[in-house]
Amino acid sequence: MAELAFIQAFLEDNLAYARDKFRSRTELTVTSKRDANDLLTEVDLTLQKRAIEAIEKRFPGDRIVSEEGDYAVLPKSPYGRCWVMDPIDGTNNFVRGLFPIFAVSLAFSVEGRAASVGVLLPGTGDLFLAKRGKGAFLNGKRLHVSTVNGLGEARVDFDFSLIAEREEMLTRAREVFLRAGQVRCYGSAVASICQIATGDTDGYLHMSLSPWDYAASQLIVEEAGGAASRLDGSTLQLFDGRKGVLITNGAVHQEVLGLLR
Ligand code: IPD
Ligand code: CA
Ligand code: CA
């Protein structure tokens, strides 16, 4: 429980900082990374630095994987105790606005499997927590995925990401796109995946996510009764590279897999 309590305290302690920075976002220093839409701010770096310092103090010797700079190196194989962080997921939304949909994600994993995780949505103050085998909770309330069991009634989030990756989504997910009851695209993998755990959404698709994009939210959905896999139906692991991800309420998982090319 020590790790989950640590995650909860870290996220709660940083809520005001992240929310206030969003409110004064016109003053942010913004640079770009992989392309002009892939953004980085001082808030991403500050949250990452705060988490690293806190983990090193409380759990010395643990490995840390986080999106920015030297910490974005994945272990070659499942690794003992490893923290996986996305300091801000949905940085583009954080910089420009949009409802606001962005998240802070922190996961503690053992041997390549998430064990205790937390996701903070600073815009609403919502805090998701999950521990393997113990359920998922939003602000202390137990979560359950939806009971929607047909794609024609399902709400599916297609996360189109970088310009370079969109052709693959259009090709491979065409039939899912055409048959899904409702189609959404929010621009924060972490926040979107968590909405499956609340039952507000039924599916999420991405052609190539990094582990920090799903380490925490995958466990939150699984503990709420949902399912996660690669696009070929194989096990969704943490450290086997940047590849496609399908996360659903479980009931529509096979139907979506069957339609993916
Ligand atoms: C991005 C978001 C986005 C997804 C991108 C991610 P970032 O994370 O999760 O929804 O489509 O692939 O890189 O860069 O804002 O942390
Ligand atoms: Ca990020
Ligand atoms: Ca991210």
Protein described:
The termini are far apart. The strands form three sheets. This protein has a seven-stranded mixed sheet with strand order 3-4-5-6-7-8-9, sandwiched between helices. It has eight helices and 14 strands. Helix 1 (2-23) runs antiparallel to helix 2 (42-58) and helix 6 packs parallel to helix 7. A hairpin with a 2-residue loop joins strand 8 and strand 9. The model has no long low-confidence stretch (mean pLDDT 96). The protein is an alpha+beta fold and 261 residues long. The protein has helices at residues 2-23, 42-58, 91-96, 166-172, 174-179, 189-198, 211-223, 253-259, and strands at 30-32, 39-41, 63-66, 81-89, 103-110, 113-121, 126-131, 136-138, 141-142, 155-158, 182-184, 203-209, 227-229, 243-248. The protein folds into two domains: 2-142, Fructose-1,6-Bisphosphatase, subunit A, domain 1 (Fructose-1,6-Bisphosphatase, Chain A, domain 1, 2-Layer Sandwich), CATH 3.30.540; 151-259, 3-Layer(aba) Sandwich (D-Maltodextrin-Binding Protein, domain 2), CATH 3.40.190. One calcium ion binds next to strand 4.
What small ligands are held by the chains? D-MYO-inositol-1-phosphate, calcium ion
Quaternary assembly = single chain
Q: Termini separation (Å)?
A: 41 Å
Number of domains: 2
Task: Report strand %.
Answer: 25-35%
Number of helices: 8
| H-E order | HEEHEEHEEEEEEHHEHEHEEH
Structural class: alpha+beta
Shape: globular
How many DSSP-defined strands? 14
The largest β sheet comes out as: 7 strands, mixed
Helix share bin: 25-40%
What is the arithmetic mean of pLDDT?
Answer: 96
- Second rung of CATH, namely the architecture of the largest domain: 2-Layer Sandwich
According to CATH, the homologous superfamily of the largest domain is: Fructose-1,6-Bisphosphatase, subunit A, domain 1
Strands of the widest sheet, in order across it, are 3-4-5-6-7-8-9
The CATH class label of the largest domain is Alpha Beta
